[in-house]
Design brief:
Chain lengths: 615, 530
């Protein structure tokens, strides 16, 4: 039984890779562009098959045995000195959850894309990038050593860059794409240094060996703390957390299905996966744990506040993604590992749903994204409205939705981790209120009230390829709360949190209060685009872009510009100029005038004689 | 004999190419191609050696050697030998030579015969540099590769070719003078100590030098190699030479000639002066790390696309210097890998810039933009190599840079962290290049966009083969490490011995370098003497 299953493992990332290769090399073999149907079939089919394989693996091995572990070794990657790396895969329940989300949600989004991108000139390029992304993401979660993980990690970064800049003719998209890649690369570099440090201390980069080696370390060992913080650096970059969150809102320049897959459901949660995967290391350092929790808490509040005032439908969702990942970090920081992964899973469902539904709205309105131009759409595109409403309810964590189960678990864990009231818990509760407000503000502005300027020419753009994924995701988002993955085998038993009833009551009440506030605000007046200073500040994401621009970007560009011609070369150019000057001086003495020669001869002789006499 | 045959074929091919163009007015390209193919095929024999009985040969790191008396009076011999490291460098030289030839097949419009004469003679000189095991012979080949390269730049170059050629010549010549002095001094010191007058590499390895002198001699070699590498602050010839050289010349320079500097450090500097190298290592590592960042910042600021690629070389070769002087196996293997990977990726980038210049007659990125729409193939391939250049995992450059950084972290974490910042810098300039040339709205300031043709199948095939090679190096790099292992182990063993002694004892006592197993005395037995 094991044998075929392990070889199936290799095919899971290989299938999307093959899809990518076929799509990319197609022009080498045929002069004509492939038909759209074929491209979509290759692109979505390869991921669909991978999803099928994953499901088979899950049912055949993991359904019965929650502590099962599968391993597959492809080949010896490199063996230099003491460094041994293999192309090795390892699957436990944590990886399996990620695999299911990536291939499952990934397949649905591929399917949706087939409809959404119809008629685009670069249809093939789009699916090629998307397939490559899925492959890299799968490698990231399958990796048994940190370098292979890093391969996937950077690979998804590249695909994110390519897809944000997919509409390359607009320089703004290119700028957003570069920003995404470079900001995350700052984090990645920190992570790489973390790997170097871990290797120096423990002489291995295999995840299991590393965790086994660290298990003997004392609590709060400074090296381990430093290594964990460096890994956290990588995680905050990829997952758009403070202080590297600034790239994600701009990343919305990409096609909407891309935002759904990469910038909501999968890639941005890689940081959460990394920390969950390395959780024994983080658990060894109280500093690292509180750093993770504080980063999460601050991010979820900051991003939530920014989401309150955005006017672009996708940017609201982007900030809400940052905020929700903040919840996951908060969960990790209070040791609620499975809570974080559970929220990752449900978030993937409902955020993908929200983005895809938003994509339908945008397409129906002929690429209008301003929510103040929308309104009253619930009658025009009812199916999209239902999906979006479900998504908003889950995002706000209304009771009985999937988001409720996972977020509730996090909030209760935060309470019990600190044995009662704490700033972290308070941030989570406040965040829940804010989430409720901005989710329903979005829903009301887009679908309720009177029609906005763009609503008039709304045509329902949903086609079959788009409605099926939406329906499936809506079902998953509603019922995902029942699918809590059995992660005890990975994270060890976590005692269930049973705080006082009033604590639970507050957690339940917050989203509903948020809903009420949003409704009250919406009813009170038709909001117009007007901005107080505070709103502008929040709208711009708390001025981080401004700060980084002044603090880093401009000085760097200025410095580079000053040094464009390489100051070092001045020295050599100076030397050259000096010798040319000397040559000029000396050659000017060779002027061919006998009188001048006589004079210098005499002068020289006198000087020489004088020197002789003097000495 | 094979080594001699390879060198002779290249020399003879060069002469033939010249003659045939002179008298028949054609055929020089084919002769050049044929002689390169023949040389490559001959080199292929060694591959069989490695795949076959490398393990059984075991004791000797030398795969083949040839030792003829040349000027016996001064102990100068014509001693060629190849080991794993040499083989890798030779393979890189010949294959990149082929690549440069094929990808610029139609570029040279005038004095073609003389061009290919210079092209092949440069390659012959480089092959000599990578195989010479006699310091005098090494110096001889070091000069041989310089002069034809000078002509390539000065005759077929772009706008400022004379300036660039002279600058290139002066830097290389001045620095190699220092090396010559160091060589002579080394031989003389060895002679006065042991009574044996020889320029032979093997014998000089055992030279006993006073530490102070050794340090100065090491610096003499280092400067010559650092200029070639190039390392800060001796790098300023490079952007001019690379930018002004014709495409094929840039490919030779970047892919091959720079590697002679790195090779020299690994082959000569480290083993000949282990104690001095250990003492000098922090400085060299600092130079390497600073080069990485400085080169990246300069590349970022350029407007000229070719200059950008040239400065990226400074950055990438900084990793080589950093890795070599980290003085441990992982970092040195990384440096070796970087030599190969940088050769492939940068050669491809130069070929792409050349292809653009050939089509649009500009390298100024302010006049380019949005080319993806009209040149999808070229743009996609450029994207691949730009991404390789920024060190994306899965490609050879990543393996190289990762190993260098991983290895040097143990030696000096702060400098490693500084060099790691170069990874961000690489992303900055590589992506900026992509944006300014291939993305954005289509710019048509040159007025040539309309009829421009995408890559020729010949160019596509050449570039794709490099791409495949980089992917292979990224995913299955082990053969390279296995081939280089004995050479690297030889160097590190000597350094470790020196390092340990340097730590435990006073410097004077560090003289007695422990004989190590990697370099047996019986090497010459394998050579073919007439």
């Amino acid at each position: 039984m094991q044998e075929p299953v392990t070889s199936a493992l290799a095919w899971i990332p290989l299938l999307p890779l093959l899809g990518f290769l076929v799509l990319v090399t197609a022009p080498l073999f045929s002069r004509r562009e492939l038909p759209e149907r074929l491209i979509a079939a290759i692109g979505a089919g390869s991921v669909g098959l991978a999803a099928l394989l994953t499901a088979v693996v899950a049912f055949s091995v993991f359904r019965a045995d929650a502590s099962a572990v599968l391993q597959a070794s492809m080949w010896q990657w490199l063996s230099v000195g003491t460094l041994q790396l293999g192309m090795d895969f390892r699957v436990d329940w944590l990886t399996l959850v990620m695999l299911l989300v990536i291939t499952g949600v990934g397949f649905l989004i591929h399917l949706y894309s087939a409809g959404y991108m119809r008629g685009e000139a670069d249809y093939r390029r789009y699916f090629a990038y998307l397939n490559l992304f899925v492959c890299a993401m799968l490698l990231l979660v399958l990796a048994d050593n940190l370098v292979l993980l890093y391969l996937g990690w950077e690979g998804v970064g590249l695909c994110s860059y390519l897809l944000i800049g997919y509409w390359y003719r607009d320089p703004a998209n290119g700028a957003a794409a570069r920003k995404a890649f470079i900001v995350t690369r700052v984090g990645d570099t920190a992570m790489a240094i973390g790997l170097f440090l871990l290797f120096r201390e423990f002489a291995t980069l295999n995840i299991r060996e590393l965790l086994a080696a660290t298990s003997g370390a004392t609590l709060n060992d400074p090296t381990i703390t430093l290594a964990a913080l460096l890994l956290l650096g990588g995680a905050v970059g990829k997952s758009a957390q403070l202080p590297l969150q600034t790239w994600l809102p701009d990343a919305m320049a990409g096609p909407t299905p891309v935002s759904a897959l990469i910038h909501a459901a999968t890639m941005v949660t890689a940081g959460v996966y990394l920390i969950a995967r390395m959780h024994p290391l983080f658990a060894l350092s109280e500093t690292a744990m509180s750093a993770v929790a504080v980063v999460g808490a601050l991010t979820l509040l900051l991003a939530g506040c920014s989401a309150l005032v955005q006017s672009d439908i996708k940017r609201v969702l982007a900030y809400s993604t940052i905020s929700q990942i903040g919840y996951m970090f908060l969960a990790l920081g209070v040791g609620a590992w499975s809570g974080a992964i559970f929220h990752l899973m449900t978030h993937a469902f409902f955020k993908a749903l929200l983005f895809l539904a938003a994509g339908s709205v945008i397409l129906s309105l002929h690429h209008e994204q301003n929510i103040f131009a929308m309104g009253g759409l619930r009658r025009k595109i009812p199916f999209t409205f239902i999906c979006f409403a479900i998504g908003c309810a889950c995002l706000a964590a209304l009771p009985l939705t999937s988001g409720f189960y996972s977020k509730d678990q996090i909030l209760l864990s935060a309470w019990s981790y600190y044995h009662g009231f704490s700033g972290i818990w308070l941030a989570g509760i406040l965040g829940a209120l804010i989430t409720g407000v901005y989710s329903f503000r979005l829903l009301f502005l887009v679908f309720f009230g009177s029609e906005g300027s763009a609503s008039a020419h709304c045509e329902d753009a949903n086609n079959r390829a788009m409605t099926v994924p939406l329906a499936v995701l809506a079902a998953l988002a509603l019922l995902g709360g029942l699918l809590a993955p059995p992660l005890q085998a990975v994270f060890g038993p976590e005692q269930a949190a049973h705080p006082a009833t009033w604590v639970e009551a507050i957690a339940v009440a917050m989203p509903i209060a948020g809903l009420a506030i949003a409704w009250w605000q919406f009813r009170r007046r038709r909001p117009v685009e007007r901005a107080s200073a505070l709103q502008r500040f929040l709208f711009g994401g708390w001025g981080f872009d401004w700060l980084y621009d002044r603090l880093l970007v401009r000085p760097f560009v200025l410095l580079a510009r000053i040094n464009r011609n390489d100051l070092v070369d001045v020295f050599y150019k100076g030397t050259a100029a000096l010798s040319r000057l000397l040559s000029l001086l000396l050659s000017s003495s060779q002027n061919g005038q006998v009188r001048w020669y006589m004079t210098t001869l005499v002068a020289g002789s006198i000087l020489f004689l004088a020197l002789l006499v003097a000495l | 004999m094979t080594l001699l045959a390879i060198i002779s074929i290249l020399f003879a091919g060069g002469v033939l190419a010249w003659l045939s163009e002179r008298f028949l007015n054609r055929g020089s390209r084919r002769i050049a191609l044929f002689s390169l193919l023949l040389a490559t095929a001959l080199l292929g024999r060694y591959w069989a050696y490695f795949a076959g009985d490398a393990a059984s040969a075991g004791a000797s790191p030398w795969w083949d050697s040839l030792n003829l008396a040349w000027i016996p009076r001064f102990g100068i011999s014509f001693h060629l030998a190849v080991d794993g490291l040499g083989f890798l460098m030779l393979a890189l030289t010949l294959l990149m030579g082929l690549f440069g030839l094929v990808v610029t097949w139609r570029d040279i419009g005038f004095r073609r015969g003389f061009f290919y004469f210079n092209y092949l003679w440069t390659l012959a000189g480089v092959v000599g540099v990578f195989t010479a095991m006699d310091l005098f012979l090494f110096f001889f080949f070091w000069e041989v590769m310089l002069i034809p390269m000078l002509f390539l730049i000065a005759v077929w170059g772009y706008e400022q070719r004379i300036y660039a050629a002279i600058k290139f010549f002066l830097f290389t010549q001045a620095s190699s003078l220092l090396m010559l002095i160091a060589i002579v001094a080394l031989v003389y010191l060895h002679y006065s100590n042991s009574g044996q007058l020889t320029f032979d590499y093997q014998s000089l390895l055992a030279a006993q030098l006073p530490p102070d002198t050794a340090y100065w001699l090491m610096l003499g070699f280092f400067v010559a190699f650092a200029v070639k590498l190039p390392a800060l602050p001796l790098h300023t010839w490079l952007p001019d030479a690379h930018t002004q050289a014709p495409t094929a010349g840039s490919i030779l320079l970047a892919a091959i000639l720079l590697k002679t500097g790195a090779y020299g450090l690994l082959r000569f500097n480290l083993p000949l002066f282990p104690e001095a190298s250990v003492a000098f290592a922090p400085v060299a590592m600092a130079i390497g790390a600073v080069s990485v960042v400085y080169g990246a910042v300069l590349a970022f600021a350029q407007r000229d696309m070719k200059r950008l690629v040239a400065y990226s070389s400074v950055s990438h070769m900084g990793f080589v210097l950093l890795g070599l002087y980290a003085l441990n196996t992982i970092a040195i293997q990384g440096a070796v890998m970087q030599m190969i990977a940088h050769g492939l990726s940068t050669a491809a980038l130069f070929a792409l810039v050349g292809a653009l210049q050939h089509r649009l007659h500009t390298r100024d990125m302010a006049h380019l933009g949005g080319l993806w729409a009209v040149l999808p193939k070229l743009s996609a391939i450029a994207l691949f190599f730009a991404v390789a250049s920024l060190g994306l995992p899965g490609l050879g450059n990543f393996i190289a840079e990762f190993l260098v950084l991983l290895g040097s972290f143990g030696s000096d974490p702060w400098l490693t962290a500084l060099a790691a910042a170069g990874l961000v810098g690489a992303a900055l300039y590589a992506l900026l290049m992509m944006q300014r040339v291939f993305f954005g709205p289509l710019a048509d300031k040159t007025g040539r966009i309309a009829g421009v043709a995408d890559l020729h199948p010949r160019e596509t095939a050449a570039l794709l083969s490099l791409a495949v090679a980089l992917v292979f190096l990224g995913l299955r790099p082990q053969p390279v490490f296995d081939i280089a292992e004995p050479s690297v182990a030889g160097a590190t063993a000597k350094l470790t011995a020196a390092g340990l002694e340097g730590k435990s004892q006073a410097l004077e006592q560090g003289l007695q370098t422990a004989a190590h197993p990697g370099w047996p005395e019986s090497d010459r037995a394998g050579g073919e003497t007439p």
